[in-house]
Design goal:
CATH architecture: Orthogonal Bundle
Largest sheet: none
Shape: flat
Strand content: under 5%
CATH superfamily: Chorismate mutase, AroQ class superfamily, eukaryotic
Radius of gyration: 23 Å
Number of strands: 0
Order of helices and strands: HHHHHHHHHHHH
Helix content: 55-70%
Length: 296
């Protein structure tokens, strides 16, 4: 589990560094600012339901139901994210217990047969309750992550920005929802201790029990070091443009800060203020439902 979390750090850092090469491009996130085609139909079920309703109305000698209104315009990010999820969903990405779609109601039928995942990995009622953090992930990404890591302005690279946004969002979602596996492991290690807080619904007590500030500081520092290492420009002579004074300080100050593709401090702060708090929120939500359907 620990190795999986560390690999996810790498994925998040690399994707955010890639996104930072383009300007913020606010038009990508404004509905209607970039014209996009209508979203593809996720399945034949809505069409069949509409046809059945029309037949029922005809049999009852009633006028057919009015045609549905066209959907409101969506942003380019929403369009790319929905369409990406529909493609990935068709090849069973979101049947995996560590993957969660931002638009689960729009997923199409599977092209590949589903895999048989162990049902004991997570407690099903708790996983259903805690596996819905993507709305918060998206809001935090737009409000906090993008402004901290991208330069203001518009470079017209809308497709590149939106495509990389999707990679960033998927990586952040997976890391944050992975907190359910961590919570399950902690519960199994001390079921009586956690159960005493779960039964009265003591969310604050669970948060205190889950929190290990020493481990969190180590994670933030590891992310800072990775960001400084991954984000350096390698020179033709074999040196690193991020080396030298300030390289170990997370890119603080003057010239040293400009040697990195993304300031390491910004990525470390993002992990500290967005990723880990949201992960712990998911853990608490999971644990609060961990005893559902379990005999006391």
């Amino acid at each position: 589990m620990r190795s999986a979390l560390i690999r996810q750090e790498d994925t998040i850092i690399f994707n955010l560094i890639e996104r930072a090469q383009f300007a913020r491009n606010d038009a990508v996130y404004e509905p209607g600012a970039v014209p996009v085609p209508p979203l593809s139909a996720p399945a034949a079920a809505p069409v069949a339901a509409a046809a059945a309703a029309a037949l029922a109305a005809a049999a009852a000698h009633q006028p057919p139901p009015a045609a549905p209104l066209p959907p409101p315009p969506c942003s380019l990010l929403e369009y790319v994210l929905r369409e990406t999820e529909r493609l990935h969903g068709s090849v069973r990405r979101y049947t995996s217990p560590d993957e969660h779609a931002f638009f689960p109601d729009d997923l199409p039928p599977l092209v590949l047969p589903p895999l048989d995942y162990p049902s004991s990995a997570l407690h099903a009622p708790a996983a259903r309750a805690a596996g819905r953090a993507n709305g918060r992930v998206l809001r935090a990404y737009l409000a906090c992550v993008l402004p901290a890591l991208t330069s203001p302005g518009d470079d017209a690279n809308y497709g590149s920005a939106a495509t990389l946004d999707v990679l960033c969002l998927q990586a952040l979602s997976k890391r944050i929802h992975y907190g359910m596996f961590v919570a399950e492991a902690k519960f199994r290690a001390a079921p009586a201790q956690y159960g005493a807080l779960i039964r009265p619904g003591d969310a604050e007590g669970l948060m205190r029990l889950l929190t290990d500030e020493g481990v969190e500081r180590k994670v933030v520092e590891r992310v800072r070091r990775k960001a400084a290492t991954f984000g350096q420009d390698i020179l033709d002579g074999g040196g690193c443009d991020g080396a030298g004074a300030g390289a170990g300080a997370g890119g603080n100050g003057g010239e040293a800060a400009r040697r990195y593709k993304v300031p390491p401090d910004a990525l470390a702060e993002m992990y500290d203020t967005v990723v880990m708090p949201m992960t712990k929120d998911v853990q608490v939500e999971y644990l609060l439902r961990r005893l559902d359907g379990v005999d006391a």
